[in-house]
Amino acid sequence: MSDQxxxxxxxxxxxxxxxxxATFAERAYLDYAISVVKGRALPDVCDGQKPVxxxxxxxxxxxxxxxxxxxxxxxxxxxxxxxxLHPHGDQSVYxxxxxxxxxxxxxxxxxxxxxxxxxxxxxxxxxxxxTEARLTPIARxxxxxxxxxxxxxxxxxxxSTQEPRLLPxxxxxxxxxxxxxxxxxxxxxxxxxxxxxxxxxAVALIRDPKLSHADLMAILPGPDYxxxxxxxxxxxxxxxxxxSGRGSLKVRARWKIEDMARxxxxxxxxxxxxxxxxQKVLEEIEELTNPKVRLGKKALTAxxxxx
Length: 307
Known about the structure:
By secondary structure, the protein is α+β, with helices and mostly antiparallel strands.
């Protein structure tokens, strides 16, 4: 019997050093999955941050880059994060930093970015050597009490310094800014919410931990997306989604009609649903209003004419 075949055979009862391959593979994959969940993909419910986001904020706090400080080059921040806390690719760290500075990605941005940090049309941010960053005032909710014994610290990847296990969030940031992540066997998609509503809900739960779901929904009725948009899902459906933790929300653009000279009018869109590119919407409108003859056809199809 070959060595490969012997791996699949059950180990003798008295052999403590042998392990069935199927059992080993199951344990190894489970360890990997847990590592991805905890160490990379999903935010912690305590402070609403993924490890790379938490390390960026802590590194900027250590560099003294608060809301009143002079911004520093993003490359300097990324280098500090890589050298002390997060030994991974520099682009992944910069991408996380950029997202925390985009007001169309986060309801309450935690980083004040100076320079080109991209747009909702899909334009990428400028290279890290061109942009500058510092913390926003609201980031103090996560960092102000970090040196007061509020959270535990742990050694960094090489034991040369300490890093916080969590940040001492005063409010549930995971609800304020939402979260999106995919791990092994699980995923999360939490919408952002309004600061005042979340604060009122937190106070109500502190005063009455047994607050009913209906009473909580009266305080926190639903999401509050950056950039606006009109939620058209019914209140009853939203309540059911929040109670079960599963479901989907429908959001549409806000618009109005403006009268013009000589009886003309124009439709003006003021808010778009989250994640919607205005450039893509304009391209689709152009395609519908000024369709081109399809390849191999001599004229517009009936469907194109109707549209």
